[in-house]
């Protein structure tokens, strides 16, 4: 006589909630990259999109136009088929997004809070993820309905941590302060801060310009005593990879990711997160 | 009763939620919402005529929308406001309805100021003589405080911004409304509050890559659904000119033709593109007008073109 929500959550070892006060700082890109980084390590990973009004994950994961299937256990997440190579045992990446439930990519979801909350609850209750090592959750910007619902539903989950994404300029940082405040108020553990779009290397002269200035994320992390997970530079080829039309695209997202110059950066970030989860696991035992 | 007040899933012969009969008609017996309909206030929202009266002297009301976050809605709103306010006889107002992530105070460099109440209503904060703004950021005790509100509370504050702010005796030449990303509570609140006062149109901001364009498609769909005229599309962050070698490159490549292609697909006007320029971000962090600080740069020309086109 256990709660269906609790049963579902028990099969997920770690949950990473990717947050940012400001929009367009790369939450979805970072979410996808984290998921790919974890997947490349041979872990079982799922990724969930709770940005109901602007779902971007299907496009980034090259899963556009797919739809959710019903099974005896519930909704089956849409899975990427690829693995790095035949020799290494990687598991497919499962993805859940509202875009899979929409008829056309042009449809807008004009919903007020309560309807969004119900949808998020269904994502947790009805999706048959199977056993997962990590579930990465991509959120919309801000600190409102979706975030409150998430925190509420995730109270039963074994391990929930947030990853805060920011760009280096002052406007983004002031929104991120709000997000840190939100995590404190709702008792959500913070795995660390990722500084995205930090510097751009000109493809013509390799001069690195700080499009949105630099270093802000790290100083913020120090200010609040949070781990600084890493700095991700702007890379148009990576943007193109996630936009689905990379010039040297081989068709497989995971292969493109492994070949990307940003892979070591994300490897470092993923390494720190996995390390962090291990110590928290140790504490629990 | 107009059909608009009858919910899609209502029982047959539903009298409509705004009807005098709501919750009491024969058809309501057994409807799970009967209780709510019977006790909810009847008739159209009494605040709407008040808002209409308050905004009577506002010549144009323009929304700045974008499906995706961080494409530069607030940057564009403030720079457009600066561009209009460059003409000293024009009165410009900015309403920031991004309740959870207000950026306008920082970009207009008024983070230390606070809104004040007076007999005639709330006094907006003036960034310059003819440029006023209101924002939730101007009501917080600490800049870092999170505003953790669900929809109804956000709707309340947005309505107050539109109903209670005293924009001055002369009114405004233009009122710009900066919105959060998406198509949710805040957007519906603005649209429904301004039902009688009227909205002149919306400017949609996007960046060139498909992930952003895709969200703007949803925003166009939203505008169509709620009946807002689209004044045009602006492509922000289109290309980057390296400050070292002055050659252009695409940080966010327009993999599917960018905003121009989208504009022609939906036959809405394309207002122009603004290239990415680190100095623009600096100006916004310090509350300066980019067009005044760096006249003649490609980004300033882009901004000027867009504001004139309006």
Automatic annotation (TrEMBL), chain A:
[4Fe-4S] cluster binds at residues 202, 205. SUPFAM superfamilies: P-loop containing nucleoside triphosphate hydrolases. Gene3D superfamilies: P-loop containing nucleotide triphosphate hydrolases. It comes from Piptocephalis cylindrospora. Its main location: cytoplasm. This is P-loop containing nucleoside triphosphate hydrolase protein. The keyword Nucleotide-binding applies. It comes from the Eukaryota. GO terms for biological process: iron-sulfur cluster assembly. GO terms for cellular component: cytosol. ATP binds at residues 21-28. Belongs to the Mrp/NBP35 ATP-binding proteins family. NUBP2/CFD1 subfamily. It is found in: Cytoplasm. GO terms for molecular function: 4 iron, 4 sulfur cluster binding; ATP binding; ATP-dependent FeS chaperone activity; hydrolase activity; metal ion binding. PANTHER family: CYTOSOLIC FE-S CLUSTER ASSEMBLY FACTOR NUBP2, NUCLEOTIDE-BINDING PROTEIN NBP35 YEAST -RELATED. Keywords: 4Fe-4S, ATP-binding, Cytoplasm, Hydrolase, Iron, Iron-sulfur, Metal-binding, Nucleotide-binding. InterPro entries: Mrp-like_CS, Mrp/NBP35_ATP-bd, NUBP2/Cfd1_eukaryotes, P-loop_NTPase, YlxH/NBP35. Component of the cytosolic iron-sulfur (Fe/S) protein assembly (CIA) machinery. Required for maturation of extramitochondrial Fe-S proteins. The NBP35-CFD1 heterotetramer forms a Fe-S scaffold complex, mediating the de novo assembly of an Fe-S cluster and its transfer to target apoproteins.
Automatic annotation (TrEMBL), chain B:
It holds the Pfam family ParA. InterPro entries: AAA+_ATPase, Mrp/NBP35_ATP-bd, NUBP1/Nbp35, P-loop_NTPase, YlxH/NBP35. The keyword Metal-binding applies. ATP binds at residues 67-74. Residues 59-232 form the AAA+ ATPase domain. Component of the cytosolic iron-sulfur (Fe/S) protein assembly (CIA) machinery. Required for maturation of extramitochondrial Fe-S proteins. The NBP35-CFD1 heterotetramer forms a Fe-S scaffold complex, mediating the de novo assembly of an Fe-S cluster and its transfer to target apoproteins. This is Cytosolic Fe-S cluster assembling factor NBP35. The lineage of its organism: Eukaryota, Fungi, Fungi incertae sedis, Zoopagomycota, Zoopagomycotina.
């Amino acid at each position: 006589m256990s709660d269906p929500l609790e049963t579902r959550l028990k099969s997920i070892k770690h949950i990473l909630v990717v947050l940012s006060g400001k929009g367009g700082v790369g939450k979805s890109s970072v979410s996808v990259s984290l998921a790919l980084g974890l997947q490349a390590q041979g872990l079982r990973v799922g990724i969930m999109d709770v940005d109901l009004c602007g779902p971007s994950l299907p496009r980034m994961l090259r899963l556009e136009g797919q739809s959710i299937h019903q099974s005896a256990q519930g909704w089956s997440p849409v899975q990427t088929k690829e693995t790095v190579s035949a020799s290494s045992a990687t598991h497919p990446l499962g993805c859940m997004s509202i875009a899979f439930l929409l008829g056309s990519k042009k449809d807008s979801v004009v919903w007020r809070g309560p309807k969004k909350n119900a949808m998020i609850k269904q994502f947790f209750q009805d999706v048959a993820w199977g056993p997962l090592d990590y579930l990465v959750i991509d959120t919309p910007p801000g600190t409102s309905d979706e975030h409150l619902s998430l925190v509420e539903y995730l109270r039963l989950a074994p391990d929930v941590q947030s990853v805060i994404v920011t760009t280096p300029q002052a406007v983004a940082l002031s929104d991120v302060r709000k997000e840190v405040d939100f995590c404190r108020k709702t008792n959500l553990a913070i795995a660390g801060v990722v500084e995205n779009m930090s510097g751009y290397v000109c493809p013509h002269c390799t001069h690195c310009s700080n499009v949105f200035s630099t270093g802000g994320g790290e100083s913020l992390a120090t200010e609040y005593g949070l781990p600084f997970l890493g700095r991700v530079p702007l890379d148009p080829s990576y943007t193109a990879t996630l936009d689905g039309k990379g010039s040297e695209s081989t068709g497989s997202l995971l292969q493109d990711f492994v070949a990307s110059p940003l892979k070591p950066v994300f490897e470092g970030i993923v390494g720190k997160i996995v390390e962090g989860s291990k110590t928290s696991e140790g504490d629990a035992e | 009763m107009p059909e608009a007040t009858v919910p899609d899933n209502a029982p047959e012969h539903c009298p409509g939620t705004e009807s005098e009969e709501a919750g009491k008609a024969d058809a309501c017996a057994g409807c799970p919402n009967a209780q709510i309909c019977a006790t909810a206030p009847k008739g159209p929202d009494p605040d709407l005529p008040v808002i209409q009266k308050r905004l009577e002297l506002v010549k144009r009301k323009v929304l700045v929308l974008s499906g995706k976050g961080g494409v530069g809605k607030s940057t564009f709103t403030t720079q457009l406001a600066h561009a209009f306010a460059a003409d000293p006889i024009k009165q410009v107002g900015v309403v920031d309805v991004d309740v959870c992530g207000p950026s306008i105070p920082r970009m207009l460099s008024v983070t230390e100021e606070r809104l004040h109440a007076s007999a005639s209503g709330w006094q907006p904060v003036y960034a310059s003589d003819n440029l006023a703004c209101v924002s939730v950021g101007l009501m917080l005790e600490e800049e870092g405080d999170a505003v953790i509100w669900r929809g109804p509370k956000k709707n309340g504050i947005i309505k107050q911004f539109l109903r209670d702010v005293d924009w001055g005796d002369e009114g405004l030449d233009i009122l710009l409304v900066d919105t959060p990303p998406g198509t949710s509570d805040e957007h519906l609140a603005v649209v429904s509050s301004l039902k009688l006062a009227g909205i002149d149109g919306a400017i949609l901001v996007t960046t060139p890559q498909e992930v952003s364009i895709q969200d703007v498609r949803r925003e166009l769909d939203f505008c169509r659904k709620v009946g807002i005229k689209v004044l045009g599309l602006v492509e922000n962050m289109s290309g980057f000119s390296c400050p070292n070698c002055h050659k252009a490159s695409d940080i966010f490549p327009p993999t599917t033709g960018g905003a121009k292609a989208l504009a022609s697909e939906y036959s809405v006007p394309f207002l122009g593109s603004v290239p990415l320029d680190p100095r623009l971000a600096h100006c916004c962090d310090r509350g300066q007008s980019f067009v005044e600080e760096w006249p003649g740069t490609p980004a300033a020309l882009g901004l000027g073109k867009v504001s004139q086109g309006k």
